[in-house]
Inverse folding.
């Protein structure tokens, strides 16, 4: 329990107790939608069109993008923190939502987490910044959302440095879930949660902290919460929305895109967190409106503009002025057609405990948007057919889908043209087994040669411990190439027997 001195101090925190009630013209909270109505949630998100990313955390006070772990909480010391100022600026710009970095990669928490001493409760501020942010933005009709880094360099979720590769133990997985519980039960509706720090991570990948378990936990707490996983891909995979990080290589959502997407850029090239050069290097109003909002809107891509507060806890005056100019210059295009139907994703993936193709189940992929070849690929032998088998560790009933993620690399890194397709599986068969010895076929067919995620819907749910994807034909006729294979349930989580 790490809340010493917090409750008394936070009750008297400047700006917290005196927060004004919502104004009569403020937008209502996001309406509750039927759980599982994923398309309606995605449509609501892309119709927001414009939002604010708030990178404000320990990095703000150390002139760093990635802060070293175990910093002294006393160094987090904003003197004039005012979430209302942030919200006023967002509203003036015409933004409909915001995202706050509740926890970044070093693990410092902007709320008084009971599970670590590395929080605002041990800082000079002793204020629940997440709560103040939520209240301030809701009061002004701007929907508050959250960012949460799975990678936590202070609390042992992944490596502290860049060379160590510690195992992720069960207690660290429960730590992640416990902190998510705090955020998703203590602050009202959170319609969007951005997860970061694991799918692209060189040391542990997307399955070390089992994604299916984390996703199910989030859905159980807030079924209407969209999950935006920063996995660096150009297609939906274990995520409700795409995210294009424009700052890496200048990549941009491609023309003709119809996937529910978001693009992130920071108002200053100085970085995501505030740096001394931030106020002097802002994007122009024209760059924001004509260079981003106008083209992205037609591509169903919501623009998230990062506006980092400074060490005082305020947006720089120059940023506030720029956002006001944007609000006067831009109006959303209400004639844009509604978001088209979206492809299914595996909502309840199961995490394999082993595979004869480890690179196909490690959940490690960060290639598409940023052009960096961080993905891991499994390459089969020849001649075909060749297969990769997943071991789920125990028998599950209710498995109704198997997914295949092809390679994501392009001939020109960071582009959206000329995806490399050599080895992509075009002819397949799916087999399952309860004992690992006797396999029976449950599906077969053909896939397009492109880089899109492929999802096999089984004719009826199966009971299995082992799931095998067999490549029977590939682009080029040579070895099969796999980025990821997954399986699980489309709409219901398979049950262990």
């Amino acid at each position: 329990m790490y809340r010493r001195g917090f409750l008394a101090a936070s009750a008297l925190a400047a700006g917290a107790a005196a927060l004004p009630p919502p104004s009569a013209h403020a937008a209502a909270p996001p309406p509750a939608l039927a759980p599982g109505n994923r398309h309606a949630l995605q449509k609501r998100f892309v119709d927001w069109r414009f939002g604010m990313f708030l990178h404000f955390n320990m990095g703000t006070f150390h002139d760093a993008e990635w802060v070293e772990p175990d910093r002294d909480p006393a160094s987090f010391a904003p003197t004039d923190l005012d979430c209302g100022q942030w919200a006023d600026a967002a509203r003036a710009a015409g933004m409909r939502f915001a995202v706050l970095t509740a926890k970044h990669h070093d693990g410092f928490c902007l709320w008084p987490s009971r599970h670590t001493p590395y929080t605002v409760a041990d800082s000079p501020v002793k204020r629940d910044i997440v709560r103040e942010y939520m209240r301030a933005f809701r009061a002004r009709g701007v929907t508050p959302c959250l960012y949460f880094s799975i990678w936590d360099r202070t609390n042992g979720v992944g490596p502290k440095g860049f060379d160590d590769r510690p195992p992720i133990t069960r207690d660290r997985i429960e730590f992640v879930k416990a902190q998510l519980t705090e955020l998703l039960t203590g602050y009202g509706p959170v319609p969007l949660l951005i997860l970061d720090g694991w799918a692209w991570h060189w040391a542990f990948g997307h399955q070390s902290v089992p994604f299916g378990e984390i996703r199910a936990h989030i859905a159980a707490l807030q079924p209407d919460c969209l999950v935006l996983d920063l996995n660096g891909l150009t297609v939906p995979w274990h995520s409700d929305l795409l995210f294009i990080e424009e700052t890496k290589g200048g990549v941009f959502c491609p023309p003709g895109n119809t996937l529910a997407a978001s693009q992130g850029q920071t108002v200053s090239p100085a970085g995501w967190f505030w740096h001394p050069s931030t106020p002097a290097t802002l994007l122009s109003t024209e760059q924001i409106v004509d260079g981003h909002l106008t083209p992205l809107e037609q591509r169903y891509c919501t623009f998230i503009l990062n506006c980092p507060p400074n060490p005082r806890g305020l947006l720089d005056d120059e940023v506030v002025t720029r956002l006001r100019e944007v609000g006067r210059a831009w109006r959303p295009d209400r004639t844009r057609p509604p978001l088209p139907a979206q492809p299914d994703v595996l909502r309840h993936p199961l995490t394999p405990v082993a595979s004869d193709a480890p690179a196909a189940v490690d959940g490690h992929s960060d290639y598409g948007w940023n052009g960096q070849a961080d993905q891991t690929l499994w390459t089969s032998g020849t001649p075909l057919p060749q297969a990769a088998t997943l071991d789920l560790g125990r028998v599950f009933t209710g498995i109704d889908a198997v997914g295949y993620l092809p390679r994501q690399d392009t001939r020109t890194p960071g582009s959206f043209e000329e995806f490399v397709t050599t080895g992509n599986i075009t002819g397949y068969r799916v087999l399952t087994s309860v004992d690992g010895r006797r396999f029976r076929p449950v599906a077969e067919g053909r896939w397009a040669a492109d880089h899109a995620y492929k999802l096999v819907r089984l004719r009826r749910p199966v009971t299995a411990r082992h799931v095998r994807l067999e490549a029977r034909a590939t682009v080029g006729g040579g070895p099969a190439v796999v980025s990821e294979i997954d399986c699980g349930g489309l709409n219901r989580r398979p049950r262990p027997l």
